[in-house]
Design brief:
- It is a single chain.
- By secondary structure, this protein is α+β, with helices and mostly antiparallel strands.
- Helices cover about 45% and strands about 25% of the residues.
- The chain has 30 helices and 32 strands.
Length: about 900
């Protein structure tokens, strides 16, 4: 493992290359928990050099309050009771705090006795801090949104203050928030509203606005006297907060922010919020808090004005206050593009407050050139034609800074129906407001099903058509018409028909991807927009056909209405996009045309607008039908490719490979029919057939004395087959039915199966191991592999992908990768098999690097069972 030099691994070895250049810290400990090895990544993480850490125990990198726990983990690890993985708070050089993820394993001597431990360390401090800051910012965004919503509903200042404190704690994830009013005579700050788990803190403190008192020199008093936000990063340090140290420590309050609340421009109250971490309030959170305080102050003035105004004027003022209080950009323009009004949020976002009386300020002035063109050429015409436009745009802030926004433009009509002016609402992307979401839902969603309506559908479709033009790839529009829904309405009433529509919406919504759109466009019609359906026209057509098949299956299931079972079916028209003249209207019209063809063909059918796609879809349906027939007949067969030991040329195993011999079309490539089997679910029946047939063949060879007890047959398992809840039970049943010992079987899965659901994969692999069945990772190195996962997985074998083997004799990188995989497999006690071996030079390389087993055309192509049996008689192959 090393050359005896303290702190270093044996130079020139693959192990040294991996460890010294590893991005993970690698630390080797002796049995007394002292550092024996310390790689460069560990130096970068903790700040200590190799020389500084050799021979030291971990106290140097552990805070005092964690040391006892870590030593207990060490004892458990050395005793074999766990401790393999943990996330710890650590201390770097000069007391720097950091968070690390540790992967620990025991090192053993040749006689099996423990000689120390090896730790892999990853610094996750930045990730943790970024996640924490993002969560806090997101939470306070929601608190700000809820505060603005509350401002529009509050019946008085006291009610507003109570709700603001509750919102700050509940949505902002703060331990305590309280608002105090300044008594104008005594200058004591009297709490008026408070909320939080630490509200008992207020029973033990007094706060003043008198700067001559110690109680007036803290953050609350300063916020009022200096009329600005005061942030204290460490509340338990410093003389200014000393009067409250004891109470704050008991309440676990570590930082604070105090914000003046103004009435008529003068600070009269203070909003106090607290964090449970030092330096809790980042600049982003401070900006949101200042905006919240400004909104509250504005609301206070507004509530005061409302109390003095006539009821008719109060309603108007309340609406104006909402516009002026919102942080969003709100503007009004005439039909010539002259700006008539901008709210405070708009002025703040733009960084300027221009007089609008002269009519010289135009809409174009608020946008960069590309966005101004979008507004002028698309947004305004769409709004004038359809009443509304929604999309992504940008505003020009101070200094010419582009601010990306989500924008809505509305056309307003007079009593005669003529458009008189246009209004817009724009928001920084990511800052959504609850009230706007409700308005948007009413404007863009179907009231019966909750699905997007035609207006929103066209907007999303237009965006996806533009995306497809920019990035490549194809999408699809599916126009779905429910056959016989009119009969249900006529016989059982429209309420029954509505229930069928709602159930159809639920079924379809639960079966689509998040990026797809399903819309109800008329009484009995739905439209599906499948974004990024395929990289090629043909792939997109196949993907659309698969979804159409699923839609027909879902709508064919019985519906229960008032205890009565009713049935409908679906006629579906499909159009692919983009094409030369595509727009949302054109794509929808093409899908509608295809739908009418499906109806004219008798209903319950699928038709493409593109004739060539219709032909391809029919061919695919025929392939699916033939594949179902192949399962019932004798068209499927297994071929077997030997796995050969490099040491002596003995056949030590084989891989079963599926073949299909069509009675009319001849051999069909697995590359053509396996994807169809996966999409339709036929892979489950095919996989079960392959497993049972392979085991029956093993039994026949064993009975003929052609395979030894050490031989094994590898069978590929599809991801969908492996994810079945009862997969292990099915394997056990197949073994029992064939009367074959479990250790004769090895199942091959891909790296993708592992990554999709690690916990499920580990559980199934452990159950298979307990059953006696081996498990191999197929095509290793072509996907995303994690060393941490490999350590957890109860694997037997790594199969090195052919793409690496092809280049080992002339590409030093591939040669190094293969050598590294072989070394890693050896250290993890895993078997290794090289796939796709085709030359004697490759065999020589693999033998030299210690590869135990090879498989490929160099030894034999996959053979039918009879021919393979003849090969087994030879027992050995040259190599």
């Amino acid at each position: 493992m090393n050359d005896g030099t303290p702190g270093r691994w044996q130079p020139g070895t693959v192990e040294a290359l991996l460890i010294e250049q590893s991005p993970l810290g690698v630390i080797e400990w002796d049995t007394a928990f002292r550092v024996r090895r310390w790689n460069p990544a560990a130096e970068r993480i903790f700040g200590y050099t190799r020389e500084e850490m050799l021979g030291r125990t971990p106290e140097a990198i552990l805070p005092p309050d964690t040391r006892e726990h870590v030593h207990a983990v060490w004892r458990d690890l050395m005793a074999g009771r766990g401790g393999a993985r943990s996330t710890n708070r650590n201390t770097g050089k000069h007391g720097r705090e950091l968070y690390c993820e540790w992967f620990n394993s025991v090192l053993h001597a040749e006689d099996g006795s423990p000689i120390g431990a090896l730790s892999l360390v990853q610094d996750i401090t930045a990730r943790r801090q970024a996640e924490l800051a993002l969560r806090r910012q997101k939470s306070l965004y929601q608190a700000l949104s809820e505060t603005n919503h509350t401002i529009t509903r509050a019946g008085g200042i006291n009610e507003l203050f109570v709700q603001v404190c509750e919102i700050a704690v509940h949505y902002g994830e703060l331990p305590l928030a309280w608002i105090g009013y300044v008594d104008p005579e005594s200058l004591w700050v009297e709490p008026m509203a408070w909320y939080g788990a630490s509200e008992g803190y207020l029973e033990h403190v007094r706060v003043s606005a008198d700067p001559s008192r110690p109680e007036g020199q803290g953050p609350s008093g300063r916020a009022i006297n200096e009329d600005r936000l005061i942030v204290v990063d460490d509340f338990l340090a410093g003389a200014a907060t000393r009067p409250w140290h004891e109470a704050a420590k008991a309440a676990d309050l570590r930082s604070s922010a105090a914000l003046p609340l103004r009435r008529a421009g003068r600070p009269v109250a203070v909003l106090n919020v607290y964090g449970d971490d030092v330096a809790y309030f980042s600049p982003e959170l401070v900006a949101l808090l200042e905006e919240m305080a400004g909104d509250i102050s504005f609301a206070m003035d507004n509530l005061d004005r409302e109390a003095r105004r006539h009821q008719a004027e109060a309603e108007r003022d309340r609406l104006v206050a909402i516009l002026e209080a919102t942080p969003d950009f709100v503007g009004i323009a005439d039909l010539q593009g002259r700006v008539l009004y901008r709210n405070a949020g708009a002025r703040k976002m733009l960084g300027r407050d221009e007089p609008l009386d002269s009519g010289a300020v135009r809409v174009d002035d608020s946008h960069p050139a590309w966005a101004a063109r979008l507004i002028r050429e698309e947004a305004f015409p769409t709004a004038l034609r359809e009443g509304i436009w929604q999309g992504e745009s940008a505003l020009l802030g101070a200094g010419g800074r582009e601010i990306p926004v989500s924008q809505i433009i509305l056309a307003h009509r007079n009593a005669q129906g003529a458009v008189t002016h246009l209004s817009t609402i724009a928001r920084d992307v990511g800052q959504l407001k609850h009230a706007q979401a409700q308005i948007q839902h009413l404007a863009y969603y179907d009231g019966l099903t909750g699905l997007p309506n035609r207006r929103l559908l066209k907007d999303r479709l237009g965006q996806d058509i533009n995306r497809a033009r920019r990035n490549g790839g194809f999408g699809a529009v599916l126009h779905v018409d429910l056959d016989r829904l009119k009969n249900i309405n006529d016989s059982l009433g429209h309420l029954a028909g509505d229930l069928v529509l709602q159930e159809t919406a639920r079924r379809l919504s639960g079966s689509l991807r998040a990026e797809d759109t399903i819309s109800r466009t008329s009484a009995d019609e739905f439209v599906l927009v499948l974004a990024e359906c395929g990289e090629t026209f043909e792939d997109a057509a196949n993907g659309a056909q698969t979804v159409a098949d699923l839609v027909q299956e879902l709508t064919a299931r019985p519906y229960t209405v008032d205890g009565m079972e009713v049935h409908v079916s679906a006629s579906i028209g499909i159009a692919l996009y983009p094409s030369v003249d595509d727009s949302p209207e054109v794509a929808l019209r093409r899908a509608d045309t295809a739908k009418h063809r499906a109806k004219a063909a008798g209903g319950n059918t699928v038709q493409f607008f593109e004739p060539q796609m219709q032909t391809a879809a029919q061919q695919r349906l025929r392939l699916e039908k033939d594949l179902r027939s192949a399962l019932q007949g004798e068209e499927l067969a297994l071929h077997f490719q030997p796995q050969v030991a490099l040491a002596d040329g003995a056949i030590v195993g084989a891989e079963a490979l599926l073949r299909w011999y069509h009675p009319e079309r001849g051999p069909i490539s697995p590359a053509d029919f396996i994807p169809v089997a996966e999409e339709t679910g036929l892979i489950l029946a095919i996989g079960d057939w392959v497993l049972r047939t392979a085991l029956e063949q093993v039994k026949a060879w064993a009975g003929a004395g052609l395979c030894s007890a050490q031989s094994s047959l590898s069978v590929n398992v599809s991801p969908r087959q492996f994810r079945q809840p009862h997969f292990v039970t099915q394997v056990a049943g197949a073994l029992e039915a064939a009367g074959v010992q479990p250790d004769c079987l090895k199942l091959e899965i891909t790296e993708t199966v592992v990554i999709d659901d690690v916990d499920d994969t580990i559980a199934k692999m452990q159950a298979l191991k307990e059953l006696g069945v081996g498990v191999a990772i197929d095509d290793f190195g072509t996907g995303y592999s994690s060393l941490a996962y490999l350590r957890q997985l109860p694997l037997d074998t790594l199969k090195i992908d052919k793409s690496f083997i092809d280049r080992v004799t002339f590409d030093r990188r591939d040669a190094a990768l293969v050598e590294t995989i072989l070394t890693m497999a050896k250290h993890l006690d895993l078997h290794a098999i090289a796939e796709g071996v085709e030359s004697g030079e490759q065999v020589a390389f693999l033998r030299d690097k210690g590869c135990p087993v090879c498989q490929g055309y160099y030894y034999s192509r996959p053979l039918a069972a009879k021919a393979f049996a003849e090969l087994l008689v030879k027992a050995r192959l040259p190599g």
